[in-house]
Design a protein that fits this description.
By secondary structure, the chain is of the alpha+beta class. About 60% of the residues lie in helices and about 10% in strands. It has a domain of about 160 residues: NADH Oxidase (3-Layer(aba) Sandwich), CATH 3.40.109.10. Strands 1-2-4-3 form a four-stranded antiparallel sheet, with helices on both faces. It starts with a helix and ends with a helix. Bound molecules: flavin mononucleotide (FMN). The site of flavin mononucleotide has 11 residues, from β3.
Length: about 260
């Protein structure tokens, strides 16, 4: 699946099929998480894969009773090595990079799940102490997110999104773009949109041309058929006319003969 398609298709899935997920797919998700960027290449993440039913139930409970999580056959608890982040980058490392690095890993995982036909959800609402106890997280680490994974059993609608106009400023904070199309042009997306528009216009026009050409061809065939029938008809008429003529000549000849012999 194309990256943009995966980004567009990804949704938070909160209902899963009772179908196990192939281990290969889980490995691909973990690899995607591990490939995320991290400040100073710190890679301060640890991924704990939880498939045990009882433990998943406990995690759902610790996540403020989000029992829907139980239906996901796999939970991946993303932990940060907070001590490591602060050792390298002090307060900024602990308060910012520690979280941001893990967030990048989580997003990679969600997209890897989508691209493999799986559903996922980023769960952030949980009691940290309870989660620490359930999976034995040491004091040097911190649970950042739980990613639920499984085959989706729902197709949630796309949630409402702020417009580009609201979301984007140019050059300085708050310098609003005049319109959405201006933002699109600035970010090169307008050209892609234009190309798509031209492509569909072209397809529409070629479709119409094809339709008319086919119609003309069938009309021509129809005319040809009609001409052939007319020709045949004419031939028949001529032949028939001649026959008629021959018949009347014969009749006249016969009458003549009968006259002569006075019958
Ligand atoms: C940091 C973070 C924490 C979240 N925590 C939860 C959560 O605890 N439970 C949940 O159902 N969804 C959670 N979500 C998912 C959001 O509700 C969801 O991404 C948002 O509603 C947009 O929907 P979408 O993911 O389908 O685009 C979380 C998302 C993020 C980024």
């Amino acid at each position: 699946m194309d990256l943009f398609e995966a980004i567009e298709k990804r949704r938070s899935i909160r209902k899963y099929m009772d179908v196990p997920v192939e281990w290969d797919k889980i490995v691909n998700i973990l690899k995607a998480g591990r490939s995320a960027p991290s400040a100073g290449n710190l890679q301060n993440w640890r991924f704990i894969v939880v498939a045990n039913k009882q433990r998943r139930r406990q995690l759902a409970e610790a996540s403020l009773q989000q029992y829907w999580m139980e239906s996901a056959p796999v939970h991946i608890v993303v932990c940060s090595m907070t001590k490591k982040s602060s050792q390298f980058y002090g307060m900024r490392g602990e308060r910012l990079y520690d979280i941001q690095n893990c967030a990048g890993a989580v997003e990679n995982m969600l997209l890897a799940a989508t691209s493999q036909g799986l559903g996922s959800c980023w769960v952030g609402a949980f009691d940290e102490n309870e989660v620490n106890d359930i999976i034995n997280i040491p004091p040097s680490a911190r649970a950042q997110a739980i990613v639920t994974v499984g085959y989706p059993d729902e197709v949630p609608p796309r949630p409402a999104q702020y417009s580009m106009f609201t979301t984007i400023s140019i050059e300085t904070f708050g310098w609003r773009i005049a319109s959405e199309s201006q933002a699109l042009r600035l970010y090169g997306l307008a050209n892609r949109e234009k190309i798509e528009k031209i492509k569909s216009m072209f397809e529409e026009i070629t479709g119409k041309i094809k339709h008319h050409v086919n119609k003309a061809i069938s009309k021509k065939d129809e005319n040809k058929e009609k001409e052939a029938l007319d020709e045949e008809h004419k031939d028949l008429e001529e032949k028939h006319g001649k026959e008629k003529l021959e018949k009347t000549d014969l009749q006249r000849h016969k009458d003549d003969l009968l006259d002569r012999i006075n019958i």
